[in-house]
Amino acid sequence: MSQHDQRRAPLANEMPTLGLGTWKNDDPEACANAVKRALEAGYRHIDTAQAYGNEESVGRGIEAADVPREEVFLATKVWIDNLAYEDVLASTAESLDRLGVDAVDLLYVHWPSRAYDPEGTFRAFDELVDAGNVDRVGISNFLPEQVDEAIERADAPIFANQVEMHPLLQQEELREHCAERDVEIVAYSPLARGRVFDVPELTDIAEKHDASEAQVSLAWLREKGVTAIPKATSEAHILDNWGSLDVDLDDEDVAAIDSIDRTERRVDPGFAPW
């Protein structure tokens, strides 16, 4: 079975293909409850970041869930102000403390911006891997040439590039580039911040499968070999997203989504590399 098979409890250090995103889930109780509910519904991949301000709440949710820590694939990200060598080490120690864990399964460079220095940043990441505090190194919002630079600078393999991806931003060139280099793609904002509900092609496919447009979008990402981390706070949305694992798109469905000729980036801060 591949690492994208989520129908069983993941082996140590595997990345399930569907996770829970927590961006903007900054209400402490709501965040902790969402993480707990998601884990108890079957999720085994939780994604957070220093910049989200909710690592402590995520940690409380993991602790409260009736799921062993070793079954949870936990990822966080180092913010752009903390990417100098010493700051990576210090801020990651603080992240682990807030999360209440000794190690994370995946640590990302959140953006290649501001304090990012490929040599110093990845030297710190490699030390964290060697120390057992980080299992895998990730990058986020990296363009193809930046992916190559990261691979060259880091001793540890670059495991994943987390980027915005959905049917309205299909990232074909970047996906192909990363696939050739054995770098996974993790999709944030996989529902285009709700825009997928207003796409006729997705609505038609959703009706065909008695599914939601969100489920269709997540199923399409899975067909592309992409891991998705949709944000959800309510139990209804957590369960709806989980239900995407039961949606099996046929070749006609995939082709129809592939042919959507729209490019709508929903996340575009001034410090972005594009």
How would you characterize the overall build of this protein?
Helix 1 (28-41) packs parallel to helix 9. The model is unreliable at 1-11 (pLDDT under 50). This protein has helices at residues 28-41, 55-64, 85-99, 118-131, 144-153, 172-180, 200-209, 213-223, 235-242, 251-258; strands spanning 20-21, 45-47, 73-78, 104-109, 134-140, 158-164, 184-188, 227-228. The longest helix has 15 residues, at 85-99. It has 274 residues and is α/β, with parallel strands linked by helices. Helices cover 40% and strands 14% of the residues. It has an 8-stranded parallel β-sheet, covered by helices on one side. The chain is built from 10 helices and 8 strands.
Would you summarize the structure shown here?
The protein is α/β, with parallel strands linked by helices.
Give the helix level as a range of percent.
25-40%
What's the alpha carbon Rg, rounded to whole Å? 18 Å
Distance between the termini: 36 Å
The fraction of residues assigned to DSSP E strands is 5-15%
Order of strands across the biggest sheet?
A: 1-2-3-4-5-6-7-8
- Please tell me the overall pLDDT: 95
Give the H and E element order: EHEHEHEHEHEHEHHEHH
The shape is globular
Helical stretch tally:
10
Count of DSSP E strands? 8
Low-confidence stretches: 1-11
Class of secondary structure makeup: alpha/beta
Q: Biggest β-sheet, characterized?
A: 8 strands, parallel
